[in-house]
Amino acid sequence: MYKETNKRSIVKGISWRVVATTTTIIIVYVFFGRLDLAIAAGMIETVLKIALYWAHERVWQKLRWGKKKIEPFNLWFTGLPLSGKTTIADKVYEELEKLHIPLERLDSKDIRDVVPDIGFTREDRNRHMKRIGHLIKTLQNNSISTVASFVSPYKESRKAIRQMVQNNVVVYLKADIETCKQRDYKGVYEKALKGELQNFSGINDVYEEPQHAEIVIDTTKTSVAQAVEIIVKHIKKNYVK
Amino acid sequence: MYKETNKRSIVKGISWRVVATTTTIIIVYVFFGRLDLAIAAGMIETVLKIALYWAHERVWQKLRWGKKKIEPFNLWFTGLPLSGKTTIADKVYEELEKLHIPLERLDSKDIRDVVPDIGFTREDRNRHMKRIGHLIKTLQNNSISTVASFVSPYKESRKAIRQMVQNNVVVYLKADIETCKQRDYKGVYEKALKGELQNFSGINDVYEEPQHAEIVIDTTKTSVAQAVEIIVKHIKKNYVK
Predict the structure, then answer these.
(1) A143 vs chain B: nearest CA distance in angstroms?
(2) The domain over range B74-238 is classified in CATH as 3.40.30.10
(3) For the whole model, what pTM was predicted?
(4) Do B114 and A127 touch (CB under 8 A)?
């Protein structure tokens, strides 16, 4: 977040003066036909009004009227491992940043890196989701929107998020398990199939499909660029005016 | 966070015009001695410049120059249960809010209400602290300062917080265990002494005194009002210019 420095108000005053004095000189000249006097009047006006404009800026700086509170939203990407959540969410974040809205990116991996021992059981995951919900809510209290990507395989935890936050937009990235396996550059599906990874959504744990997602994208048929376009369009239409 | 509405720019334009046109009329009158022509020139100026001023505002609205990034801080209250953390932190938060800086209040109890099963063992607490550190860091990325109150009895978790956040100000509220027991309106000390509460800092678990606190307040000798004054003064001096 930014505040206007005093220097900014001064320079803004000077920049306005150039525009305004030129206009005044032209008007006075048209009325009285004396360019010398018009310029002299313009000069005096300049000195006086730079100070007045600065004072006017500082007074308005204190007034809250006409400042509109920004409405935060939460874009929530859910889907099987390797369904494309991080890839698409990263691109969406990049696009939305261009709109100069306060925005934060939350990715499952980053948070699990900070607190490594979260666990993957149903209970652990639900507790984890509640914490993420609290984090998003706290950010929203401060007008910050979020782009969050978490497998979030259980209905109840996605529901908990929805109840905690405002303007929740669930993006379900649909991909059949075979496609995800083919994309398995991390080797996680292989490990899960061998039984080396427990509670792996889609293999040895359930992924409960969302029934109320605002946006559903079939990533086996839709390109990353198309997906990003659909999502950004939805956000622009509903939350960024 | 707020943005300037178009309406605000328009009304600001009109308000400036009243100031500016009056000045122009006076100048032109002094130069040419013709009040009628001076007023006529002022009228034309008014119409032209309201539009110009509005355009000027909208151009500056897009410019980032001269907007200063707000430096966020983290006020971290630590101390035994009932040492006065929540009471003093609440009052400090109220005072700091008057400065119109983006600010968030984080209290142990509120967060434990959201996620009830956090636990109180050394391991649980340290993990909890890391999550709080992540939350504060995320808020700071968005220029939001924090007023946080947590028992935080262990050196290593306070150190973890210090490493994760910027402008960390530890406030150690010193109170001997006897004073805290006398303040025991919640009955928690009694319960802990009976063995009904486990891992209770100061009774059946250690409270490691901070060695590097920026502010140390002896709450047996300092009133709440005095404590608030000391802390707010420190923040104003160092972080709010």
Answers:
(1) 5
(2) no
(3) 0.78
(4) no
